[in-house]
Amino acid sequence: MNKILATALITLTSITMTAKDNTKHPLYKDPKAPIEQRVEDLLSRMTIEEKVGQMNQLVGIEHFRENSQSMTAEELATNTANAFYPGLTVKDLEKMTSDGLVSSFLHVLTLEEANQLQKLAMKSRLQIPLLIGIDAIHGNAKCQDNTVYPTNIGLASSFDVPMAYTIARQTAAEMRAMNMHWTFNPNVEVARDGRWGRCGETFGEDPYLVTLMGEATTRGYQGNLNTTQDVLACVKHFVGGSYSVNGTNGAPCDVSERTLREVFFPPFEASVKAGGATVMMSHNELNGIPCHTNSWLMEDVLRKEWGFKGFIVSDWMDIEHCVDQHFTAANNKEAFLQSILAGMDMHMHGPEWQEAVVQLVKEGKITEERINESVRRILYTKFQLGLFEHPYVTAKERDRVINNPEHKATALEAARNSIVLLKNDNALLPLDATKYKKVLVTGINADDQNIMGDWSEVQPDDKVTTVLKGLRQISPETEFEFVDQGWDPRNMSQAKVDEAVAKAKEADLNIVCCGEYMMRFRWNDRTSGEDTDRDNLDLVGLQNQLIERINETGKPTILIIISGRPLSVNYAAEHVPAIINAWEPGQYGGQAIAEIVYGKMNPSAKLAMTMPRSAGQISTWYNHKASAFFHPVVCGKSTPLYPFGYGLSYTTYKYSDLRLSANNIGKDGLLKATVTITNTGDRDGVEIAQMYIRDCVSSAARPVKELKGFERVALKAGESKEVSFTITPDHLAFYDIHMQKTVEPGEFEVMVGGSSEDAHLLKTKFEVK
């Protein structure tokens, strides 16, 4: 008996000592313990208030401080870029953080603020670190001195998937050097309406291209999600925001499940299955149901069908918009309830969430276990990123990493490969500096940081090469006369236009830099970008007049377009001899453009989005159904201005000898399509070869062609290469008449060439038995 009592006492003592030791050295702070165990240990110690706090994000304190002094409470209802919280002070936000009631911040733009916020979090009872999120869409461009790469639409026009990975990898390194951990990118929406201001944030109109670019970007950001060089990707916006009823951001999307699954779902599914750690829901209603309360999207498709394990975040106050825009909830508390029960994990952003959700749990409307599900997902990512061990970053590390020579070189190379040559009559380009000694440069985008594109903040001038600066750098012997048209296309000066026209008559050659204005620090003055949608695709203001009058001087004229969306430059397409579409080429865009203008680089990019003749052609994407143009329009043309996949070079390429490895394939077989490409010009170049497939007869209507392969092919002058594409069952599958994904037997057509235009494609056929 004494022996048993002694054993019991020893056991009790051991338990007591372990409990004390566990208090001093809790398991969740042990970096050697499995993450799952660390999560459960931490979760077991948290109050319901702390758990709900882990599901909430706030704007940064400096952002709050600035906007509380400049904005009114009324402006908050419609502003989706800036915010403050009426009734709260900076001290209130600091106390919420030090009390452990905040999980994440966004709009934090400096290392100093990020570190200070982490210090506040470290004062909390459990010392749970913060996730600092930022819109690092094309580099961490909202922060000073970070590398600014071309925006996604330009990157997609390079058809360079490895470059997408590299840029994301470098962006992740710069973010972590700024103590930032979560980028709200990639945007894998399929852009099909040029009126929508966010086209430049996407990878274009084609589901296959968007899928590959999005998947590579996701992998690039995240790495293995276990080092201080990795960040969380956020796959967004799920789903339909790029296909709204009127082309405006957040407007309803009404679309069939067939179109969702064949066009809009594939990029999301691929990025999720590539390990995407977070998903952001879309502003809009999808077929009448707000995406933020849509359990079919969040639970059935994302989690059950695709196996998504990460956490879902709302977009900017979009749960609240169920009250004031969608009218599917009577108040914010009810909207929070609907969203959480539908699958939402984190709220962007605002303090009302905390009290309302805690009340919902205490009232029994949401179970604590449902809250635990979300908190587990969020804590897991914080452990993965090593934030518990590395909550701070030094200024020395920041200065070593951001905008370093390797990253600058990547930004320049990406810009060179993103610029599309649309027109080059009589080989005006590349310019001969000895022939054109006096050159006029004008237009709203000739000498402005707007060249960086949306999601950029003002950078030091020595970090950004405008078009004018680039021209002077690449051709120092040329006399460039500059007539400044200002940055604002809506308020151009007629006198300045007249001055440019007068100077154009005296010049040997004229360069006009037109387009849109995207810089976010002048939010209400932009013509393109987030929440900046158009009812037409024409050039704004006096830009067309400027182009026409300068071109009519009879002097050779070059048009350079800087824009995040395709524009209807009809006059230029017909009359101006040379047109370059540079999209938003980033901090070295001006140098890259100048190198192409003067022939230091041979352009290779191809359009990732069709350029329509007018807003009436917004549905002129290349992979349309055959019946879309059964009846041609009257008083106009049904063809676009420039099609998807189109782009010129300073050399020429010939496609020949398209052949298949077999005439038919079985259900599980593979087929190889091989073509010979010859550089028939006198310059080295890179051709982007594209393979399209068409299902000739099917149980449901199919597109006239779909991109299913592409390759960047470097060819020296006179060189020929064989290029092969492997056709797999995935390339042939679609949703049949019964909405079952299958490969139907029958005839398929393979098309290979330099653009999606039929005239540029070689064709052959095979059968699926």
Helix content: 25-40%
Find the CATH superfamily of the domain at 411-629. Glycoside hydrolase family 3 C-terminal domain
CATH topology annotation of the domain at 411-629: Rossmann fold
Spatial order of strands in the largest sheet: 11-16-15-14-12-13
Low-confidence stretches: 1-21
Count the DSSP helices. Answer: 23
Our measurement of the CA-to-CA distance between the termini, rounded to an integer number of angstroms, reads 82 Å
The backbone outline, from C-alpha atoms, is globular
At the first level of CATH, the class of the domain at 411-629 is Alpha Beta
Rg from C-alpha positions? 28 Å
Count of strand segments: 26
User: pLDDT average, as an integer?
Assistant: 95
DSSP strand content: 15-25%
Kindly describe this structure.
The chain has 769 residues and is an alpha/beta fold. Among the domains are: 219 residues, 3-Layer(aba) Sandwich (Rossmann fold), CATH 3.40.50; 116 residues, Immunoglobulin-like. The chain has 23 helices and 26 strands. The strands form seven sheets. Strands 11-16-15-14-12-13 form a six-stranded mixed sheet, sandwiched between helices. Helix 18 packs across helix 22. The chain is globular, with a radius of gyration of 28 Å. The chain starts with a helix and ends with a strand. The N terminus is likely disordered.
Key phrases:
single chain, 769 residues, alpha/beta, Rossmann fold, Immunoglobulin-like, six-stranded mixed β-sheet, five-stranded parallel β-sheet, 23 helices, 33% helix, 17% strand, globular, disordered N terminus
